[in-house]
Amino acid sequence: MIRKAFLGFLGIVFIVLVVIFGVRLFSGEDNRNGQQLPAQKDLTETAIANPASKNCEDKGGKIVFLNETSGQLGICQFTDGSECEEWQFYRGECKKGQFTSADTSHAYSGVITKINGRFSFKDSLGITYTLEIPANVSLELQERLSAEAFSAGIVTLVAAETPPLSKNLILKSFQEK
């Protein structure tokens, strides 16, 4: 009877040791000081590349990301000093060797307001920007903007946040809904 109890006890100890060893084996590695090392990334994992970024790199460019309030914007920079917004380059709208600053304009959807003669723009995420109107904008467009500011209707405008993360939008164009 004692022998059966002893063998049962040894069986339980063996199972506990196997479980502890298994957990230790499949957990992260330790260095010599007993500290946990970060898990290594699985190099067999595949990811789908952004076609605009891949196109830039395939054609000799380097991708640089600008962080803006509304998200990230990829700029394709070339060794000759020229640059293009990555999707414009992908669509063939700008080329390597064109020495103009990358057009970082993109669409924003929201509401235009005008307070004390200054335009503001509140996007669909609730972020409020100062909307700067370039000096060369026609009087007709300025009047349309003013009318839109009083209607409080949703518009889509194309603008660049300059400089990035500044909450200043430089208007390029807009479209009423």
Automatic annotation (TrEMBL):
Keywords: Membrane, Transmembrane, Transmembrane helix. The chain crosses the membrane at residues 6-26. Pfam families: DUF333. It comes from the Bacteria. InterPro entries: DUF333 (IPR005590). The keyword Transmembrane applies. This is DUF333 domain-containing protein.
